[in-house]
Here is the input.
Amino acid sequence: MKHSITYITALLFLILGTSEMKAQDHHSDQHDYVVLSKNIKQLKPILMTATSLAEEDGENYGEFKVIFCGKTVSDMKNNADFTMLLKQAKLQNVKVSACGLSLNKFNINPDQLPELLEVVDNGILYGFQLKKNGFISLTI
Here is the structure.
């Protein structure tokens, strides 16, 4: 009886320890980030944050994405300051996107936007999909 308890305990530790290791294998050491914002004026501090996180994370720094949704998409066209920040974002490998639903709502033609800006169909859905894929997310 004493040996049975020892064997059962050892078996439980083996099973629980193995399942915990599998869960850990599922997560990467790479840190990926996504920011969902309703204000394009936040792009400059977001890029500063991306720089700091890249330095802090070192080799573990992964992707950094920014998604703009809402009325702020109206401020993107013919905006020299925003275009300059998009160029800075590209140099930092930060991908900036505009929400297609917001563009439609405010009658903005994607052709009127800077070339460096990516358009995603649904910014909120895209943010959730990235979060499900392990991205650390922030909404501002």
In short: The longest strand covers residues 61-68. Residues 28-139 form a domain with the Hypothetical Protein Ychn; Chain: A, fold (CATH 3.40.1260.10). The mean pLDDT is 87.
